[in-house]
Predict the 3D structure of the following.
Amino acid sequence: MPQANAGETGFGGGFQAGNGGAPADSRLHGRVVDIDTGRPLVGRTVVVARDLNDADPEQTTTDARGAFTLPNPGGVYDALVLEGDGSAVTIYQGLTLQNPVLTHRWARSLMLTSRLAQVRGNISGGTTFPLSDPGDVVAVHLFTPESTERYLMGAGGPPFGPEYVTNARFNSSELLPSTVVTLGTFGRKSDMPQSAPAYTAFAATQTFELYDGDVVANDIGLEPVELGEISGAVALPAGRHVTEMREYYRYPYPGAVLDFPAADYVRKNPVTAGGDFAFELPVLEDAGASLCLVGMSDEIVGMSDEADSLWTERCGLSLGDDAVSIELQAAPVLSEPTVDATVDATTHYAWSVFEGGIYDLELWPDEPARGTPGITIMTTATDLVLPDLSAWNLSLPKSETYHVTLFGRGVYVSMDEAFGARGVGAVIPAEGRVSAAAAVDVTTSP
C-alpha cells in the first residue's frame, strides 16, 4: 500500500522537515497547530526569546495558515503561544529549530468560519438503496485542510440514502483542495451461507477544488475493494490491560480519519486475548491513505477516582502484516505538588522519568479565561517552577481549583524532534505515544 510520509502532507506551505531543511535566511518560519487535530490556529500571539522575560522579546501573530515568521534569537530559545483573549498559554522550553511546529491547547470556544462549500448527490453500487439491512453502512467523508465532515447512512437508522450532502466550512479565500472518500460496508445477509464473508466493502475516492459558495453536484459509484488482515500484539507495562483498540486510515489533511463504523471485523480481540489482536479491514490504497492502529489502556490507579491513560498510535502499516507491535509506555508520575495542595507562583513541580519522550505539564481550570488561564509547559526537564507570565498580563488567580495533568509524549529524543515536522503536530505520525497520569487537583493560594 502506498505510504504517506509522516508529517509531510502537501499543505505545509513550503516548510521542510528538520533543521537540515530550514530556510536559508536566519529567521524562524513556524506554524501553530491544534494539539489534537493538527489544524492551523489563526490569530495566536507567538513570542520567542532566549529568555521570555527579556525586556522586549520578539513576537508576532499567526496568519490564516497558522504560520509565523520571527527573527531567530540564535542558539537555544524558548517560545510562547498565547490565545488572543488570554485564556490559554503554552510555553516551550529549549528549542533550536528554525521551522518549529508548535502544538497548542486552547479553550475550544466556537470556531467561526466565514465560508461554506457543499458536495451533494446520490450513491450507487454495492447494494440497493435506500438501505434496509441494519448491517449495511455507508459513510461519506469530506476532508479539507480546514475541516472534516462525515455523512453516515444506515446502521439501522436514517438516513438510508441514496441521497447525501456534506459541507466544507473554512476561512481560506483561495481554492480549497479536498478529497471525498466514501466507504460502504454491507454485512452478510441471513440467506447467505455461513462460509460467506462477514461483510463486503465498496469504496470510491474523488478530489475537488472548492471555493466559497460552491454547490458541487457529485454522484458516487461505489466499486468493490478487497479485505485484508492485520495482526499482532499490544505490549503493556506490568499489571496493565488493553481496554480499547482502534483501527482507521489517516489521510493527508489535519484531523482526517476514516474509521470503520461496522467493518472492523474482529478475528482476535485484544481486550479479551491478553493484548493479541487480529482484524479484517477494507484495503484502501489511494489519496495518501495510511493505515493506523491505536492501543489504549485506561485504568483507575491507587485511591483516585481519576484514570490514567496510556495510548500509542502507529501509522504506515499494511494489511497483511502479521507481527505488528503496539507498545504502551507507563506514564510519568507527579511527585510535587500532591493532591489538594495549595500552589502559587513559587510552587515546585517535579515528576518521574519518561524515557524517549518529552513532558507536557498542564494546569487547567474548569473554565479557562484571562482571569483563570490554562497553562501548558512543554519541556525535557523533570522539574520546574512556573515562568513569570506577568509581561502578558497573566498570573494564577486566587482561590481557584486547577487540574494538574502530566503527559509523557514520545517517541522523541529532544524538543526539536518533538516540535519538528514529524513530531507531536504531524498529520500522519509514524508513531505517537501519549501516557497521562491521573490529574491532581490543587487550589491556588487565597
Observations:
- Residues 19-109+331-444 form a domain with the Immunoglobulin-like fold (CATH 2.60.40.1120).
- The first strand starts at residue 27 and ends at 34.
- The helical segments are 415-418.
